[in-house]
Write a structure and sequence with these properties.
Elements (H helix, E strand, L loop, with lengths): L1 H5 L7 E3 L15 H7 L3 E3 L6 H9 L4 E4 L8 H4 L5 E6 L7 E2 L2 H7 L4 E8 L9 E8 L6 H25 L14 E2 L15 H11 L6 E5 L2 E11 L7 E4 L2 E12 L4
Parallel strand pairs: 1-2, 3-4, 5-8
Antiparallel strand pairs: 4-6, 6-7, 9-10, 10-12, 11-12
Helix pairs in contact: 5-7
């Protein structure tokens, strides 16, 4: 949103979830102050397909609607509401990685690179034609926080690049190559549970994949939950607070304890 304004363009309308729906959303950003600062009307709806959202889009005469960072799938009424179309951002290089949890999966799958794709939304899940992409190289120790920041920056870079082309009609969508399409399933906080009978290397990768802003990798010990935010694999002479796995030790560098009865 800031990238649009800084490029000399304006938003006619912003739509977000009600505040109480944002408590469990990883990386939730509240846009009230930004909208007030720019004089942008802000509508809060419980679902993107709510009639209030459809009506507001039509009332404000939107050409393009951006749906970015919204976990709900838009239906036909929303897709047809703006005059030109609906655009989305997906944090993979589509058609690879359709679906959810793109940042954790990129790390868990040990990809050499990932990226961000701007595409036109259709009634399928991340299946619409591509307008632009930005690649992000992954290094060996990349974690979710590091990748999250670069994904956010790539979003802004793409916006600055494509908005002038959108307004001048110079941007043309290219269909996705279905033969290269892959789908990544959603993840829940429980998927962050570490397995002491497994590999320390897998556990270290899991820690990096689900660290902040995600719920974290964890294990339950004697009635308490240990959540590990940063760790490294070490040898038998591991110092500090360490967890033992089948093939080695994991040194916990940043971690928190919490009672199980409040989780």
């Amino acid at each position: 949103m800031e990238a649009i304004y800084s490029s000399g363009y304006q938003l006619k309308l912003a739509i977000s979830l009600p505040d109480d729906r944002g408590v469990t959303k990883s990386g939730r950003v509240y846009i009230d102050d930004l909208c007030q600062r720019h004089g942008t009307p802000l509508l809060k709806v419980r679902h993107i397909d709510d009639q209030a959202a459809v009506d507001a889009i039509k009332e404000h005469g939107l050409d393009w609607l951006f749906i970015i960072g919204w976990s709900q799938i838009a239906g036909r009424a929303i897709l047809q509401a703006p005059s030109a179309g609906v655009l989305g951002m997906h944090p993979t290089l589509l058609p690879m990685g359709r679906g959810r949890a793109a940042i954790p999966w990129a790390i868990l799958k040990q990809l050499p690179e990932t990226g961000v794709t701007l595409f036109q939304l259709s009634e399928g899940v991340d299946t619409g034609p591509i307008l632009a992409q930005r690649k992000i190289s992954l290094h060996k120790g990349a974690d979710a926080n590091w990748l999250y920041e670069r994904v956010v920056a790539a979003h802004a870079d793409l916006i600055r690049e494509v908005v002038p082309q959108l307004t001048s009609g110079e941007l043309f969508p290219v269909p996705q190559d279905e033969s290269k399409a892959t789908f990544w399933p959603g993840r829940t906080p429980e998927d962050g549970r570490m397995d002491l009978s497994g590999s320390a290397f897998d556990a270290e990768r899991l820690v990096r994949a689900v660290t902040r802003p995600y719920p974290g990798a964890f294990i339950d010990i004697e009635g308490r939950r240990l959540t590990v935010w940063k760790a490294e694999v070490c040898g038998s002479n591991c110092s500090g607070f360490c967890l033992r796995f089948q093939d080695g030790w994991l040194r916990c560098i940043d971690y928190t304890w919490s009672p199980l009865d409040i989780i």
